[in-house]
Amino acid sequence: MFTGYFSPVMELRHEPNEEYKYPVYGLPECSEDCPTRAEIYNGALEGQGLELGYAANRIDPFIMEVQGSGYVHFEDDDTLEYFAYAGKNNKAYVSIGRVLIERGEVPREEMSLKAIKEWVLANDDDVVREVLEQNTSFVFFQPKAAAPVTGTAGIPLLPMASVAGDRSLFPMGTPILAEVPLLNADGTWSGAHQLRLLIVLDTGGAVKQNHLDLYHGIGARAGIDAGHYRHFGRVWKLGLENSPTQSPWALSPEVNN
Fold this sequence. Notes:
By secondary structure, this protein is an alpha+beta fold. It is built from seven helices and 13 strands. The chain is globular.
């Protein structure tokens, strides 16, 4: 299963106002007993000085949480920062897309990240909050100067060449040969695949077993493409079994040199 992810660009303000009132948080000190999403929405982190900025809606921070990181444009002083992944509350991740499908809010065949955002913006805040709270997992961020997007491996990600995988199957740095599905403009599968050389440079909480998440790039267009990307393809893991090339970045410094 190939899905896609991207680096969103989120509009924030440093201080809240009537429009920008939804906080984005840095990592709290709660290694085990962290609050759930519902508790955080209810003010569990207020007064701790963890607010990194304020968004105009709930869905933009939520999308950045799902992607794991992204860029932030502060509209009050026109500055750009990169919000890196800082940690999470270690609660269960639940797909909001699946919740909306099960509740009959969005047809399965029309489900995408774009469809989720359109549904959110078309509904009242209380309705949106209740749905988002079904995903108890919550991601925290760490501001950094605008820089290339990096994955778990600490290497800049290249669109359509970097992929997130399950570390138990694909150690960081694993090269794979993949027949990736080619999509039509509306997100449907074209019926064709393209052979690509990919490198596993990232991980993800929902990326397990035979699921690979292909990085699509930065911004709205990449987000639309990534949101439609949910199709199957074949993969060959490159490297010799039971040899150092099976886990390329597990090699000792002497071997790497």
